[in-house]
Amino acid sequence: MPPMRSNTLNDSVNIKLLVLGIASVGKSSLLLRFTDQQWLPEGEMNPTIGVDTLEHKLDVKGKRVNLNIWDTAGDERLRAITSSYYRGTQGIILVYDVTSRETFDAISWWFAERSKYAPEPVVKMIVGNKSDKSHMRQVSTAEGAAFAAQNKCMFIESSAKTAVGVRETFRKVLERIIDVPELCSTPKLTFKAPNDLANILK
User: Which Pfam families does this one have (predicted)?
Assistant: First the structure.
């Protein structure tokens, strides 16, 4: 009888994460900090058009994770097409800016609108970004945590500028996904933009 394969780093899993939130909450900055340990001032970051995708590999809970992250635009024109991005998604990160009440209120819209596209048991994390700007805060930590608990999501505050909470954000989501066997069986996906993207951006 051949030996049973142990759960080592030879085991790999393909995971797709979708990052949502309206423009300027710092979604792309969080990804840059997580993948490249870099931060750029807001004025130097190029706005996301449609969706940007990136690949990242890391070890999580004894598995080699091939991570595919979809960074979506927050542009109003593009909200109508993001439903097609949910296919094969195992985790969703919803981001708001703690210094902007408007971006926090928008999370309710994103959550209600998008929950119908995301089959359970997809893992959800709500992230209050820009926590370094405490003097400008409009949304308290307690308020963000309460909203997340009400919607059965994980919650964390982060700062792409200082790196606080960034690594934890992604690792906690990935660990939770790995703990759900049916989520880890999704095949590796490649990005294909919706056919109507070009028309919407005209």
Answer: Ras
Q: What is the pLDDT of residues 30-83, one digit of tens each?
A: 988 998 877 656 655 555 555 677 889 999 999 999 999 988 766 554 555 556
Residue ranges per domain, the chain? Answer: 12-187
CA distances from 110 to 26, 44, 117 (A): 16, 26, 11
175 against 7, higher pLDDT: 175
> pLDDT tens-digit profile of 101-116?
999 998 887 777 666 6
Q: Token match 């996906």: residue? A: 189
Please state which CATH number belongs to domain 12-187.
3.40.50.300
Listed residue (125, 173, 178, 185) closest to 152, CA to CA:
125
